[in-house]
Amino acid sequence: MTGTPHASELRSPIPRPNSREAFLTAQVQSYRQHRRRTQQAAAAAARRTYPHHEAAEIIRFAEVWAPYGGPPGDEVFVRFGITTAQFRARLRDALRQCSDPDTTRWRTAAYRGA
Q1: Is the pTM of this model over 0.70?
Q2: How far apart are CA 70 and CA 113, in angstroms?
């Protein structure tokens, strides 16, 4: 036959579905796509919730230690991996975002002198 080749002749051969190698390749590709989608969804969720979660965690931690004048430096470092000064700065920022002025006032007062 002369002329242009048929479309089926231009495509690369499709592996047979009963071929073990083709089956494993398809499974690996499916797994990779699923994992990629799962990781992307988890990363997107972490970007949306992390700042609020961190602020809430810092406020809860500060509430626990408020009667004692604030947390010791080693506790802050173990929990958050930051210094006490950095913790206080993040606590101030978190309290600025807090919507309840009375709560913000007493929490700020508890950490003002320390």
Answers
A1: no
A2: 10
Region of 83 on the Ramachandran plot (φ > 0 left; ψ -120 to 50 alpha; else beta): beta
Pair 94, 63: CB distance under 8 Å: no
Domain count, the chain: 1
Q: Which of 68, 55, 72, 73 is nearest to 110 (CA)?
A: 68
Q: For the segment 95-108, what is each residue's pLDDT rounded down to a tens digit?
A: 877 766 666 666 66
Length of the chain: 114
Whether residue 5 lies inside any domain: the answer is no
Rounded to whole angstroms, the maximal C-alpha distance in the chain is 93
SS3 state of residue 1: coil
By residue range, what is the domain housing residue 33?
A: 17-112
Please, which residues have CB within 8 angstroms of residue 23's CB and are 6 or more apart in sequence? 17
